[in-house]
From TrEMBL:
Gene that this polypeptide is encoded by: Maats1_0
Keyword Membrane: no
Name of this chain's protein: Cilia- and flagella-associated protein 91
Xref: Pfam families: CFAP91
Species, as recorded: Ramphastos sulfuratus
InterPro entries on file: CFAP91, CFAP91_dom
Primary location recorded for the protein, binned into one broad class: cytoplasm
Limits of the CFAP91 domain: 4-155
């Protein structure tokens, strides 16, 4: 249930598995039939390689059953067996070619499907961009129409104010009493932009921008500014020892206020 791994692995030490030299004895072993297979080209063996090995074994077993060529009947029988085997091999080869063609056809279908999907995505993106461009043009046209509408409404309102065409003089008092007039709040379409050059009204002083300037400014102020002295107010009325105000004193204060 535990997996271990060394510091050095086969995959890091070599590229292909090592194949030692060998000497073929008088009898050829079955393993040498796989000498054409190499790592990455048939090894490790898969289903196709196993089927090839089984076909090679069947062919060797079939070769062992062939009759000897010592008589005319055996030669005819051998020729017939070899013709049948050749037909089987050609049929097997046709099946392999059909499988290969089917695999290529499926690959071609997949490529065509991907090409169609990519083309559809590209068309959808183009349509989306085209639609967005139309929407932008539509919004700009709507803004222009609204601006023209507001302009025409202002012109109609201005004409309706003076229907008879009389000459009206400027009423300065009315302009300064109305805080929404052109004097206090001029319109930007008349050429006045109150937010332009607003930084010119900002107070720039070294005594206010730096801490050392603030300390120097505070030190230059007199004491009565920073240290306020509050005097207790004195009573306007004459009070008794117990703190109450007499009726006569309150009446005198009222008469003095009325006289003033």
């Amino acid at each position: 249930t535990l997996g271990t791994q060394t510091d050095y692995r086969d995959g890091e030490a070599q590229t292909d598995p090592y194949s030692p030299e060998y000497v073929v004895p008088s009898s050829i072993p079955e393993l040498l039939t796989l000498a054409t297979l190499a790592w990455g080209r048939g090894l490790p063996a898969g289903l196709a390689e196993v089927e090839m090995i089984e076909r090679a074994r069947e062919k060797r077993a079939w070769e062992a059953t062939l009759p000897a060529m010592d008589s005319a009947s055996n030669i005819a029988k051998r020729r017939k067996m070899m013709d049948d085997m050749e037909r089987k091999e050609w049929a097997f080869r046709e099946q392999e070619i059909e499988k290969l063609q089917e695999a290529r056809l499926e690959l071609l279908k997949e490529l065509l499907r991907r090409q169609v999907e990519n083309q559809n995505k590209l068309n959808a993106k183009r349509l989306d961009d085209h639609w967005q461009n139309h929407q932008k043009a539509k919004e700009e046209e709507i803004k222009k129409i609204q601006h023209d509408c507001a302009l025409m409404l202002r012109k109609l309102i201005a004409k309706r104010k003076n229907v008879m065409g009389k000459l009206e003089r400027r009423d300065i008092i009315k302009e300064y009493t109305d805080f929404g007039s052109q004097t206090y709040a001029p319109l930007s379409r008349n050429g006045y932009f109150p937010d332009n050059h607003s930084e010119c009204y900002v107070v720039k002083n070294c005594y206010l921008d730096t801490f050392a300037g603030l300390c120097e400014l505070e030190a230059s102020l007199p004491d009565y500014v920073t240290q306020v002295k509050i005097k207790a107010p004195t009573s306007k009325y004459t009070a008794t020892e117990t703190g109450f105000i007499k009726r006569s004193a309150r009446l005198e204060a009222t008469l003095a206020q009325v006289h003033q």
